[in-house]
Amino acid sequence: MEYCNPGLWRSIVPFFTVLFSSACVCGGFQVRLDPGPNYGNVEMYHNGTWQRACLDEYWYYFGRYLPSVMCKQLGFNTTRNVAMRQTGTQHGLFWYTRIHCSPGDRLLSQCNVGRITNRTSCSDYYIPRIACLSDNETRVDIENHNITVADGLSFYTRCNVFTPHTSLSYHWNHNWKNVSYSGHYFSGKGNRSVAGNWTCSVSSNGKTLGSDSTVINVIYPPKRLQNKIIYAKVGDTVSLSETDVSFPSPETFTWRRLHTNSSFVRSVTPPVMPNIQQADAGEYIVMIQQPAYHLTPSAPAYRGNYSFGVQLVKIRIPYPPSIQCEEVVRVVNGQSRTVQCKVDSYPRHHMMTWTLATAAGTRTQSSHKDTYHIVNASAGDEGTYTCTATNNLTYPDGQVETGNGACVIKVKVTLPSGGRSAAEGAVKGASDQETTSAVWGGLALVAIVVIGLLAAVIVLVIRQPDKKEVPNGDKPIEMTTVNRTRVAAISGPLYENAQDHRRK
Predict the structure, then answer these.
(1) Is the pLDDT of residue 13 over 60?
(2) pTM of the complete model
(3) Are residues 311 and 346 in the same domain?
(4) Is 138 part of a structural domain of the chain?
(5) Are 148 and 23 in a shared domain?
(6) Could you give the C-alpha distances from 62 to 40, 88, 126, in angstroms and in order?
(7) Does residue 283 contact residue 259 with C-beta atoms inside 8 Å?
(8) What's the number of domains the chain is made of?
(9) What is the pLDDT of residues 91-100, one digit of tens each?
(10) What is the three-class DSSP state of 91?
(11) What CATH number should be reported for the domain holding residue 263?
């Protein structure tokens, strides 16, 4: 029984079988087009399964009547029924047979159909692909819609156009980005830069007629040794590897953290570390195992030995500077001392600023050193020192922020005796000097007063002789001048006594 009307066939055959294509039961087997409905690869239904058709080598060159017969059998009353060329080897399950049609054949049952057998690959002109087009319809078709090539091997594909229009122009884009490439074919060598989606767009006189796409798969092994740095924030989920480190994707990942006693962990998916913490920062080794596939121009891909790759992953979790320093630092007056701030940060701080606040004012000094040297300490070096460290924090999204940290140190400059500080000693010395000056000034004043009183007493004594009465009417003693030439000449008696004189 033959069903040669697409609408009727869709109503009879289960919906999921022919959702996107037309199909007919013809000559004992069913046919349809994929992706359809009026163009695509020919698929056959045999022994209860749909599989792509693989026809003998004569179909493209000598089977020029097959597209018209199949389009008519599928219910398309079209006049431009064309065979679309395919290149390259495709793998999978195929129904292989030979179909030879004559010019007068209108149904496949009228054609010469051979025995149907099973195949696992089909190449080039053995793959039937047709388009049932109206007079004004255009179909753009790339010869191979899935190209697989080994890294370093050459490949090519062609952008075919079936249209009544002329003056055609071609434009290609790669992964949806425009490329400076024009022409109806594209060729190159397999590498990661050409892998991905390629689309050919065709236009005529500035009007777009249509486009078609192909995917280029490049087989490449994982790198034998690759260094990788991952920046993360606390709480992030970090993947130590990706699935695109090789093609085909790796089968297994084996990993562990370096410089620890941890054991290896094995998984079939890239290792993931959720809710990462600061303690998780460090170095990890990831070993990648991939099945090795080999391609040759005349043979399909086959599986060989495994390929291995190694990744050395460094996880970095940036954090702002944290500084430790002494609260109080003492230095002896006239001696030298180094003040230090211990900085912990990632990445390392790129700037250290020292600020000194004293009674006389504030001064700032910038450097890259974590130490500050006090040379020949004096009272002017005493005060509050603040060290401030600055670094740049880089995050996974590429954002860069500035991190800061600070610590405060009080510096005391002491006297050699270990007593008060130099500043306090200077103040105390000035106070003692003022006190001493005041004391000596008071003593001098007292001395002057005393000396003045003594002088006054002496003067009074000299100018006022003793007025005690002389008994018996003696006269007062007269002062004489003493000649210090050995003999004193007395000009007159010390006392005159009339009685004594009379006695003599």
Answers:
(1) no
(2) 0.53
(3) no
(4) yes
(5) yes
(6) 20, 20, 12
(7) yes
(8) 3
(9) 789 999 988 8
(10) strand
(11) 2.60.40.10
